[in-house]
Write a structure and sequence with these properties.
Beta Polymerase, domain 2; 212 residues; disordered N terminus; extended
Length: 212
């Protein structure tokens, strides 16, 4: 028996929760999905504060705890980012996922007034993806350095970044320089070397000569 089976509520209970959400949230609710024992509500971006307030305070929900807030990047979409909120109701012993979509320029209303614990996760989502949160009290980088350029979890961000940081003996301080590492390593063919790649792997040239 899988861990998912042990912890997932019955599908009927999730369907009832989805029906209640449709009744309570009205036009703010765009879609509901039940997959792998989890319910996801897709909501309109501008309604996220009202939606989470209802999910927190309404006796039918009582999702008092924000477990996590994160971003997801789908660069092929016009609204390339999803912002995902994971909620927990101790009262009803239920978990819920709420998500919305946004683009690089559209600001998402901050939910720090609903869940104060969102302050740092919203900063992280801004730092990693560049998602703007309107009304956040202190929206600045939290994981990268002060002079960092770009947002490193975007799928079009190069693996080696744009600048490198090092200590300069000449200047006796930390300096930033354009990155000098090659970025060819993004070209993966996903062939397993244990199953036998159809080309000579770097470093195996001599082995190929001996076999010949």
């Amino acid at each position: 028996m899988s861990a998912n089976t042990l912890w997932s509520p019955p599908v009927e209970r999730l369907e009832a929760l989805a029906a209640t959400a449709a009744e309570k949230l009205g036009g703010a609710l765009l879609a509901t999905t039940i997959h792998a024992g989890e319910l996801t509500l897709t909501v309109a971006r501008d309604s996220i504060v009202a939606t989470l307030t209802t999910l927190r305070d309404d006796p039918a929900f009582l999702f008092k705890t924000l477990i996590e807030l994160c971003g997801v990047d789908y660069p092929e979409r016009a609204e390339r980012f999803d912002v995902v909120y994971h909620l927990l109701s101790y009262k009803h012993n239920l978990r819920l996922r709420v998500k919305l979509s946004t683009d690089e320029d559209g600001a998402v209303p901050s939910v720090t007034g609903v869940y104060p614990a969102a302050i740092w996760p919203e900063r992280e989502c801004w730092d990693m993806y560049g998602v703007l949160f309107e009304g956040h009290p202190d929206l600045r980088r939290i994981l990268t350095d002060y002079g960092f350029q770009g947002h490193p979890l975007r799928k079009d961000f190069p693996l080696t970044g744009y600048v490198e940081l090092r200590y300069s003996e000449e200047h006796k301080r930390v300096v930033y320089e354009p990155v000098k590492l090659t970025q060819d390593f993004r070209q993966f063919d996903f062939l397993s070397p244990w199953e036998g790649a159809k080309y000579i792997l770097p470093g195996d040239e001599k082995a190929g000569e001996k076999q010949g």
